[in-house]
Amino acid sequence: MNLYTIRPPGQAAAISSNDWKFRRRKLPIIGKTRFGNFQSLELTKRNRKIDIAAGVAFNRAPMKKTCLVICSLLVFGCTVEKKPAPPPRQFDPAQFDGKKALFEAVGLVGQGARDGGTPGAEKAANYLAKRLQAAGVAAEIDAFTNMTPRGPRIFRNVIGKLPGDSTNLILVCSHFDTKPGICENFQGANDSGSSSGVLLELARVLAKREKRGPEIQLVFFDGEESLHEYSEIDGFHGSRFYAQKLVEQGRAKNTQMILLDMIGDQNLTVTLSNNNDPKLATMFLQAAEADGSRAHFQLWPYQIGDDHSAFLERGIPAVDIIDFDYGSAPGRNDYWHTLADTTDKLSADSLQIIGRCTIRVLNALVAEDAVKTASANSK
Ligand SMILES: [Zn+2]
To answer: pTM score, two decimals?
Structure first.
């Protein structure tokens, strides 16, 4: 026998559910429904009546009958008080695998030199888009023409999109081009293979997210490196183009940006410069603390020009997670932009630390988004 236990305010009863009917009756207004104000619902069984006010709890067995009652309530315009949705699920930092990130970094390096705006970069962009898709993330290649000291070139940003349901946008970014003029088959293993490998492994971890919370984009910039010296027409092509695009789309005020660059060094020390968004920088320090890897993060009393600069200049909070001490001994930086920037210098452990901390920061930003959305909905 299927029994419903109905507990209207002040009384309780157990009734067979077989031939219930619902009907409205005129009573003082006690609530609102999507069909207008409602007073009360009256359940009748034969000549027995029980009033149900909004928010009455139903306990029953089995499940099918509960569904029937709830559906009936909806059909007749009664909505039980709507509960706020729980916040989106958090990502598990332990899912990030440094070895897989290293595999992805080596895979990108294997495509050959990828100097910005060249056929090599186009090949690398296509490769990254395929790897994103293989991880289950929708990928776009956003091509645009920019002037360079050697004339106009076509650059290609690659964007992996993880949709959400709020208007906020979180970017996790890397550049994927190599520094021109080093040697014919320059690897650029740490600069920019390491951060690109981390983004591809993040794609695998984040791919199955529910479509809730802020949209997350994994963005690979073309043309970060300069041909000669950084100027209006040399370097940061992809980031400047993308930051400006967000401004023109009216999304800049809802965007926060995380940049990863040169984070695969075996001797990992992230040098947090003083031109970072303080909140995002603090979030990374807290994430590192929680991860047990705080010793790998240092505050640096200098400024670093990187792809995050174009975002900061446009009022978009941004942080650059970079280890700008990449060499044979502390302070030398002699692997940077030299033949020595090869895959044997990369460490899966370093990639894993950065991947896990990034996931922790993403979790904090998703939680922040849930609070903002709840507060906006309650107004
Ligand atoms: Zn570089």
So the answer is: 0.79
369 close to 166: Cβ distance less than 8 angstroms: yes
Q: What is the DSSP letter of 228?
A: S
Q: What are the tens digits of pLDDT across the range 61-80?
A: 344 444 444 444 444 444 45
How far apart are the CA of 76 and the centre of ligand 1, in A? 64
Cα(277) to centroid of ligand 1, in Å?
A: 22
Mean pLDDT over 20-32 rounds to: 39
Tabulate helix, strand, coil % of the chain (nearest 5). 35, 25, 40
**179 CA to centre of ligand 1 in angstroms:** 6
Q: Which CATH superfamily is domain 93-377 in?
A: Zn peptidases (3.40.630.10)
Q: What is the pLDDT of residue 81?
A: 58
- Give the distance (Å) from ligand 1 centre to CA of residue 337: 6
Backbone angles phi, psi at 90, to 5 degrees: -85, 150
pLDDT, position 106? 98
Q: 360 alpha carbon to ligand 1 midpoint, in Å? A: 26
Paired tokens of 66: 């509960």
Express each pLDDT in 194-235 by its tens digit.
999 999 999 999 998 889 999 999 999 999 999 999 999 999
- The closest of 103, 160, 15, 96 to 352, measured between CA atoms, is 96
**Minimal CA–CA distance to 90: which of 288, 359, 351, 281?**
359
Q: How many Å lie between the centroid of ligand 1 and the Cα of residue 90?
A: 33
- Expressed in angstroms and rounded, the spacing between residue 363 Cα and the centre of ligand 1 is 29
User: Where residue 82 falls among pLDDT bands split at 50, 70, 90?
Assistant: low
Domain ranges of the chain: 3-75, 93-377
> 87, exposed or middle or buried, with CB in 10 Å at 0-12, 13-18, 19+?
middle
